[in-house]
Amino acid sequence: MIKLTSICLALAFCLMSCNGAQTQVDDPKIFTLQPFNQNAFIALKQQKLGVRWLMVVWSLDCPACFKELALIQKLQKATPNTALNVIYINADDNIDVAFERKQVLAVYGMQNVENFYFTDGQADRSRYLLDPNWYGELPRSYFVDEKGVFHGKSGLLDEVLISNWLLDK
Amino acid sequence: MMNFKKYINLITVVSVIAWLPTSQAMIAGHDHQAMMAKQEKATFDNKCKNAAIECAKTVTSAFAPNGDLWRLWVSNERLIAQISQDNGETFSKYKVLAIPAEKISARNENRPKIAFDNTGGVYLSWAMAREKKYTADVRFSYSHDYGKSFTKPITVNNDKLLAGHSFNEMLVSDKGDVSIVWLDGRIAHQLRKQGKKSKGSAIFLARANVKSTNNNNPAIFTNQLLANDTCVCCRIAMDFNQQGELAILWRHIYGDNIREFALLTLNQNEDKPKQPYQVSYDHWKINGCPHQGGAISVDEQDRYHMVWFNQGDVGKGIFYASSGDQGKTLTKPISVGDLSSQASHPHLNKNNDKIDIVWTQFNGMEHHLMHQRSFDNGKTFSQAAILAKAKNGSDRPFIIKKGNVSYVSWQRPKQGHWIKAL
Questions:
Q1: Which residues of chain A make contact with B289, given a CB cutoff of 8 A?
Q2: Which residues, in sequence order, are bridge partners of residue A30?
Q3: Residues of A in contact with B133 (CB under 8 A)
C-alpha cells in the first residue's frame, strides 16, 4: 500500500513538474471552481456549520503548498470510503494562471471537491475577508470546528495533524 | 470529541464573520454593478492587448545617469519600457525592447531588473521560467546604445541544470562591472537526486564586465556560492558599501525552519565569503513561503540601514535597524507601520541626512502607500503618512534615487503606476 501510494505521489509530482505538454492535463475538467468572495464565504460557513472541516489556501508560487496538497491526496487515497472535508482556495489572483490552476487541481485529484480562487487583483481583499490577521504567507490552513470557529496555521501541516482532524481521531 | 488544542499550539483563532442579509435592492444593485464591471473589463482587456502598463502586475523603475527615469514591465512575454525626462510626470511612447519573447517571471517578489553604466549602457536581467515547475534560468542582456539594440540574452547560471534559478537582483558599477545574485536550486537539485533532503535554496553571485562583448563574443559570468539554506521565495536585497563591496541581505533558514534575515558583505580582501551575520531575531518558524524579502541601503559613513518583515513569536511586523560594522552589531530594531492594518512589504533608502521607509497597508477595501522619514540617522522617525491609495491591488513599493532626491515607485494594477518625489 505504501509503495502504491509512493508511486501515485511520484506520478502526481511528475505530472505537475515534468510539465512536458504531452504529460500535462490538456483540458482539465474542474467541476467545483468558483471565485472567493463575501457571499461565497458566508454560504460556505453556513453550509459547514456543525461539522469539522479544513480549509487549505495554496499558491502556484509555494513549493510547500504542493507538499500539503499531496499529503491530503495521500490521506484521501488511504481512506477511499470517507470523503475528506477539505475546501481549497487558490491564492493566485492572476487571470493569467487560470489554466495552470486547473492543471494543479486535476493532478492532485481536486476536481470534484469544492475549490475557490482569489479573483484577479483581489488577493489582499480576499485574504482580509478570510482573516485580517493573515499576512499572505503560505500554505495557510484553517481548522474549522463544529461551531464555525477558525483556527489558522501558517506553513506545511503535519501529516498526523491533518489525519486526526479530518478523521476525527 | 477531539480537542483541537491537543494537537497544535501555534494557532490563531479567527472570529467568525457575521452573516449578512441579502435584499432585492442589493440584488438589483449587484446587476448594475455587474454590467459596469463588464464594461470596465472590456475596456481594460483592450488596453492590455496594447501592453498598457495598467495591466502589469509588477513594474521596475530606475534612474539612468543622464537623469532619465526608466520603467519596465512585462506583457506577452516581452519586456516593455518607457522613459520619462521629467521625473515621471510624462513618459515617452512605450517601446517593446529588442529581446525575443520568452517566459519572463514578473510577479510578486520575482521580477526583471534594470541598471545602467555611465556610457549609455543598459543592463537587464530576469528569470525565465523553464519547462518544469519551479525551474528557471537567470537571464541577461546588454545594450551599448541606450536601449536601441540588445545583445542576445544569455543564461547567467552556469550549471546547465533544470533547477530553480530566480529572484535575481543586479547592481552595475559606473565602469560596467555587473553583479547579479539570485536564489539557486542546484544544490537542492543534486541532493534530491541522491535521495537526500534539502533545506531551501542557495545564493549565488555572478560577475562579469560585458562592455566589450557582443553576440559573437558573449559575456561569460563567473558563478560563486555565497550561502546555502536560504528561503526559496523572498527577494534578495543588495547595495554597494563605501568600498564598492556588495552588501547582501536575505531571508535565511536557521535551524528547524526559523526564517530570519542574514547579511553578508563581500570584502575585497577575502578569498571566500565569510559567515553571514544574522540580523533579525524575531523567531518566525514556518515551513512555507513568507513572500516578503527585506531592503538595505548603505550610507556615506558606511552604516547599513535595513528593513524587514517577520511574523515570529518574538517579533511581528516591519522592523528597521542599522549597523555600523557590517552587521556584527545592530541597533535595537524599531517597529514600523500598523500591524493591524496589514503593514507589509517595506523598502527603504538613505539619502544624505534622510532615511525614508515606505510600505503598504490595507484596510479591507484599499491599499495605502505609507511613508515615514528620519532626520537623525534612524533614531526616531516622523509619524507615518499616506502617500497614495490603490483600489485594485498593490505591487511592492520601491524607493529609487536621483542624486539627492528619493522617489517612490508603486505599481497599482488596473489603476496605474505611481511615482513621486519624497
A1: 59, 61-65, 137-138
A2: none
A3: 16-17, 19
Question: Would you state the pLDDT for residue B84?
Answer: 98
The closest of B174, B123, B113 to B145, measured between CA atoms, is B123
How far is Cα B266 from Cα B264, in angstroms, rounded to an integer? 6
What are the CB-based long-range contacts (under 8 Å, 24+) for B31-40?
none
Strands (E) in B281-404, as ranges, are 295-298, 304-311, 316-323, 334-336, 344-351, 354-362, 367-374, 385-390, 397-402
Return the C-alpha cell found at B101: 519573447
Q: Is A65 on the interface with B (CB under 8 A)?
A: yes
Query: Which residues in chain A (108-167) have CB-CB distances under 8 A to chain B?
Result: 121-125, 128-133, 135-139, 142-143, 145-146, 148-156, 160-161, 164-165
Q: Determine, for residues B311 and A135 on separate chains, whether the beta-carbon distance falls below 8 Å.
A: yes
CA dihedral A12, A13, A17, A22 (to 10 degrees): -30
Contact state of A65 with B288 under an 8 Å Cβ cutoff: yes
Average the pLDDT over B229-242 and give the result: 97
**Which residue, among A45, A61, A96, would best test binding to B if mutated, counting the most B CBs under 10 Å from its CB?**
A61
Secondary structure letter of residue B104 according to DSSP = B
B83: number of Cβ within 10 Å: 16
Amino acid at B303: R
Structural domain range at position A126: 2-166
Confidence of residue B359 (pLDDT cuts 50, 70, 90): very high
Split at pLDDT 50, 70, 90, the class of A97 is confident
Single-letter amino acid, residue B359: W
> So what's the pLDDT on residue A15?
39
* % of chain B surpassing 90 pLDDT: 81
* CATH code of residue A15: 3.40.30.10
Instruction: Enter the pTM of the model.
Output: 0.88
Q: Which of B132, B134, B414 sits opposite A121 (nearest CB)?
A: B414
* B18 vs B195 pLDDT, higher one: B195
- Report CA torsion sign: B347, B409, B265, B219: positive
Beta bridge partners of B358: B347, B371
Nine-digit cell at B140? Answer: 541577461
- State mean pLDDT over B106-120: 95
- State mean pLDDT over B327-340: 97
| Alpha-carbon distance B212 to nearest alpha carbon in chain A (angstroms) | 37
Dihedrals φ, ψ of B292, to 5°? -145, 105
User: pLDDT digits over A144-167, tens only?
Assistant: 999 999 999 999 999 999 999 999
pLDDT tens-digit map of B123-180: 999 999 999 888 999 999 999 999 999 999 999 999 999 999 999 999 999 889 999 9
**Quick check: A16 contacting B, CB < 8 Å?**
yes
Amino acid at B377: N
Which of A68, A12, A91 minimizes the C-alpha distance to B288? A68
Contact A41, B17 (CB under 8 A): yes
